[in-house]
Write a structure and sequence with these properties.
With about 150 residues, this protein is α+β, with helices and mostly antiparallel strands. Helices cover about 20% and strands about 40% of the residues. Strands 1, 2, 4, 7 and 8 form a 5-stranded mixed β-sheet that branches. It has a 5-stranded mixed β-sheet with strand order 3-10-9-5-6. A hairpin with a 4-residue loop joins β9 and β10. The radius of gyration is 19 Å and the shape is globular.
């Protein structure tokens, strides 16, 4: 019985001490495909709705397109609806790179939903430059978009 107890305690300690499995947000193949894609010419976007929710990048700290992170890294986004509106989390989208590949499901599968945002604790992506377009609507169907850019060494 003592050996079984010691084994169970050791197994519990190992599971706590070992890092959790990292979320592979984007594969190397997806990154290369997006980088090699011809530039997408988009129609002029409508001006941003000043009453749409705000999307704020909390982590990695935003400091322009030169943000450098190392794998694995944390990612946290906060959404701020305008007074009188609620966030529509079902409308959330995460689109990767110039091809705008939909990575919403894999991101949400591992994200912790907070009252005003999303938090990921163990994200990995291939080394290189990355762009993710985030979208969310509020209860009045006003859409906000924010592109986050970063580089992984």
């Amino acid at each position: 019985m003592r050996n079984l107890t010691q084994w169970l305690v050791a197994a519990a300690l190992i599971s706590v001490l070992l890092p959790a499995r990292a979320l592979q947000l984007v594969t190397k193949e997806e990154m290369i495909r997006s980088q090699k894609a011809p530039p997408v010419v988009e129609a002029a976007a409508a001006p941003a709705d000043p009453l749409a929710p705000q999307i704020l990048l909390i982590d990695p700290e935003a400091n322009g397109t030169d943000k450098v992170v190392r794998n694995p890294f944390k990612m946290e986004v906060m959404f701020k609806p305008q007074e009188g509106a609620a966030l529509d989390f079902k409308s959330f989208q995460a689109l990767y790179g110039s091809l705008k590949m939909d990575i919403t499901d894999r991101l949400l599968k591992e994200a912790v939903k907070t009252p005003n945002g999303l938090r990921l604790a163990n994200v990995t992506v291939p080394s290189g430059k990355h762009r993710i377009l985030l979208r969310i609507k509020d209860s009045q169907n006003r859409m906000a978009e924010k592109e986050i850019q970063f580089r992984v060494d």
